[in-house]
Design a protein that fits this description.
The complex is a heterodimer of chains A (371) and B (421). Chain A has 371 residues and is mainly alpha-helical. Chain A is built from 14 helices and no strands. With 421 residues, chain B is α/β, with parallel strands linked by helices. Chain B has 2 domains: 229 residues, no CATH class; 150 residues, Nutrient germinant receptor protein C, domain 3 (GMP Synthetase, Chain A, domain 3). The chains are: A mainly alpha (371), B alpha/beta (421).
Chain lengths: 371, 421
């Protein structure tokens, strides 16, 4: 069954959950409290997060069902067997665009934030370039190595979140969370859209399921991964509203980073916690971006069968850098983010779900292709 | 193949060395001028007309001549900011016991704080660095001008070196004088003031620390608020106590609450952490001092037909007796009960003083009753928010009834100091 067995232990469902969580915890959560606070009143954004989490989990289950159907062949080959190769190539190109845009977006985001808080004078292009070179290095190695990296980094991220929570609670005013349930439904849906966007990325299960020892556990793993990301979102959002209040969070560009800045350890021994926070957060954003870029290469390799994957990556890298540097300011950057999110929903989720339907019908006709 | 590989390695090394040496943001720590405190004063008309910097405090502050500062846009400078900068050598004691000053002052005039920072850089060998800014002192004359507070703090929130935990205080005196306070034992006036502002455990007359991030939130919510007030800055000490009241209506500082009223306000806002309440006892001129240890506050609101809310604030205070004069048998239940009642009355007077001044004179809701209404009665609030402080000023009309129950739980080591007469 296991084709992609690199002489290593296959990935367990838990490790797959961690991979999904690493993919979802990226730059989204750093700005999420602001976007949510702008859409909703007081603390009602929590409903958006929970609602969006449930939606994402449902979609995740559907997508991973498609992935299971693909069985031991790579997803795109499976798609080709269903909808013919030219159409599959089109799908691959769309997904290529999405994954490349995704990693470019993450790179730009972390470059922006680093510029804002760490490197005041360094040109943002160079920060992005340095980060991107590491990504290119990352995808040049073995893919299971990338997955192992997730398993290694995620606990550090969770520990940092815990520290933020433990030491941040000193400043929380629970009064800021009241009143409850005052936001209208349209605004809740608007907030939910934002959260769903930040939870996109679980589509990687389509490609990484080959590494799983027991692919039938994939839906569970995806749901688990999304649950971790939702929990992190909830905690950060809750803290941000509790500390900054709703209007405050609305007017802080990166509320989660400001949260880390607020933290003071007793005795002023360690004053700049945010630098540590950054290091850890850059690690998880690296994971997100590197997996995106890896899959972009994978899609390209499917379209151009003869090309080695490394060459694909080398061709894609400059293009991704250009995409990354295109937005000139924050509003343009947000437009890029929205575009990529729509691409993700169409190419990453709707099409695979459509394939699932198609497969079901074919089976109904008697051809036992998926098995 | 081999040859190319041999070429690649040195090439990579060269590229790496080029990339690595180009660090844009490198500033050695001894090249940073750590600004720990900023005081913002108004440029008075007389002084700017004659082009003279403030005299008076010339000890350590290098009073800079300000005539040429604002040549770029020929506007009259608006602020005079005093920057307190750490001198690294001064932070450690020298061997012969003499210590160099740990800080020095630079004064710059200008219309925007960001250009003033640039002006500062023109004068300092070490570029100003704000990451460790602890304190921002704003003088009354600046704060009294409408909208000025938001204008002054914007830079301290927006610049990427800034932290949201910088303290903000208002002084009726000159901010430069406040920063000049040097108590023996404290090396940096800013650090000293920051520590004093934390002493809420020992005094009920200090408002809880007001951080710059909180100020932004208040301004965004368009509500009235109070800031810590610091006064009588001289060489030996400055006093933190009292409240500077900012009104949302006029968007400026409208006045101050004195220590007693601030204590009342602290009780009303449930921000008491400790403090001493003097209360009279009995007919023979006896009195005692009640130490606050714990308090709880409950607010009830009823709305009359016209929609005006009536607040019933119930405050319960637990504490101990810390000093007594002419109080009989402090161990008896009767005395304890009576002391509790008297202390409660004293606290009630404090709160009434605060309410009276806030409602009648300043007409500004610093008690945060608006927040309470917005949280517990959002519907009512949405209908009336425009008339709470603005418009009809419902706040000043709303009856606020305070009931205080104080309980004396401990009376200290002794019963009586002198024999009962």
């Amino acid at each position: 069954m296991k084709t992609a067995y690199f002489g290593e232990r296959p990935v367990t469902p838990l490790e797959m959950s961690m991979t999904i969580a690493s993919m979802l915890i990226g730059v989204g959560v750093l700005t999420l409290p602001r976007t949510l606070a702008s859409a909703t009143k007081s603390f009602d954004g929590w409903m958006c997060i929970v609602g969006a989490g449930i939606v994402a989990m449902l979609l995740g289950v559907l997508v991973s069902r498609t992935a299971i159907k693909a069985g031991n062949q790579p997803f795109l080959d499976y798609a080709a067997s269903l909808i013919s190769r030219p159409l599959a190539c089109l799908l691959a190109l769309l997904q290529l665009l999405y994954f490349m845009g995704f990693s470019a977006y993450e790179t730009r985001a972390i470059a922006n934030i680093s510029k804002q808080y760490l490197f005041d004078k360094t040109p943002v292009e160079y920060i992005a370039l340095a980060f991107f070179l590491v990504i290119v290095y990352g995808v040049s190695g073995s893919r299971s190595g990338l997955l192992r990296l997730n398993v290694m980094f995620l606990p550090a991220v969770l520990v940092v979140v815990c520290i933020v929570v433990l030491f941040g609670y000193r400043w929380v005013e629970f009064g800021n969370l009241e009143p409850f349930f005052v936001t209208g439904l349209p605004n809740l849906l608007k907030g939910m859209k934002e959260v769903v966007f930040s939870l996109l990325g679980f589509e990687i299960i389509l490609y990484y399921i080959m590494f799983m020892g027991r692919p039938e556990k994939a839906p569970k793993a995806v749901v688990g991964g999304i649950a971790i990301a939702v929990a992190v979102d909830l905690i950060i959002y809750q803290l941000a509203i509790g500390i900054f209040s709703n209007v405050g969070a609305m007017n802080i560009v990166y509320p989660a980073v400001e949260l880390a800045k607020e933290i003071q350890f007793p005795g002023n021994f360690f004053e700049r916690f945010e630098s540590l926070f950054f290091v850890i957060w850059i690690m998880t954003i690296y994971n997100t971006a590197v997996m995106g870029f890896d899959l972009a290469g994978e899609c390209m390799a499917f379209v151009f069968k003869r090309m080695p994957k490394r060459v694909c990556h080398l061709i894609l890298a400059p293009i991704a850098m250009i995409v990354c540097m295109m937005p000139q300011n924050l509003p343009q950057f947000n437009i890029l983010g929205d575009l990529i999110s729509y691409l993700a929903i169409s190419a990453g989720i709707l099409v695979p779900c459509g394939l699932l339907l198609l497969n079901g019908r074919k089976k109904g006709e008697g051809s036992r292709e998926g098995k | 193949m081999r040859a190319s590989r041999r070429l690649v390695a040195p090439l990579l090394l060269i590229v790496c060395s080029i990339a690595l040496s180009g660090c844009w943001d490198r500033v050695e720590i001894d090249q940073r001028g750590f600004v720990v405190g900023v005081g913002i004063d108004e440029v008075s008309k007389k002084e700017s007309a004659s082009g003279e910097a403030a005299g008076g405090s010339d000890r350590k502050s290098e009073q800079a001549q300000s005539a040429s500062v604002n040549t770029q846009n020929n506007k009259r400078p608006k602020y005079r900011a005093t920057y307190q900068i750490v001198t690294p050598g001064g932070m450690k004691a020298t061997t012969n016991g003499q210590t160099a000053a740990a800080y020095f002052h630079m004064t710059v005039e200008g219309t925007t704080l960001s250009t003033m920072e640039a002006n500062l850089a023109q004068r300092m060998s070490r570029a100003p660095f704000f990451e460790h800014l602890k304190l921002l002192v704003i003088s009354e004359s600046v704060a009294r001008r409408p909208g000025e507070l938001a204008e002054t703090i914007d830079f301290f929130l927006r610049d990427n070196q800034m932290r949201r935990s910088t303290r903000v205080m208002v002084t009726p005196d000159k901010a430069a004088d406040i920063l000049d306070t040097q108590t023996p034992g404290e090396r940096l006036p800013s650090a000293y003031l920051e520590l004093v502002s934390n002493n809420v455990m020992n005094s009920s007359r200090i408002l809880p620390q007001t951080r710059i991030g909180d100020v932004q939130e208040y301004l965004l919510k368009n509500k009235s608020f109070g800031l810590q007030m610091v006064s009588n800055g001289n060489r030996a000490y400055s006093t933190i106590g009292g409240t500077a009241v900012f009104s949302a209506r006029s968007n400026r500082l409208v006045g101050f609450l004195d220590g007693r009223e601030t204590a009342g306000l602290n009780f009303l806002r449930n921000t008491i952490k400790g403090g001493h309440i003097e209360f009279p006892y009995g007919d023979e001129g006896g009195h005692g001092v009640f130490i606050v240890q714990r308090m709880t506050r409950r607010i009830r609101v009823t709305f009359d037909k016209g929609g005006l809310p009536t607040f019933n604030i119930h405050i319960e205070v637990q504490g101990a007796l810390n000093e007594a004069a002419r109080i009989p048998d402090t161990l008896s239940q009767d005395t304890l009960t009576r002391m509790g009642q008297d202390a409660g009355k004293a606290i009630q007077q404090l709160t009434e003083g605060a309410i009276d001044k806030l409602q009648k004179q300043y007409r500004s809701d610093v008690i945060d009753l608006d927040e309470y209404l917005a949280r517990k009665h959002p519907r009512w609030w949405n209908k009336h928010r425009a008339n709470w402080e603005q418009g009809d000023n419902l706040f000043s009309q709303a009856p606020i009834r305070v009931r205080v129950a104080a309980y004396v739980h401990r009376t200290g080591n002794i019963n009586l100091t002198e024999e009962e007469k």
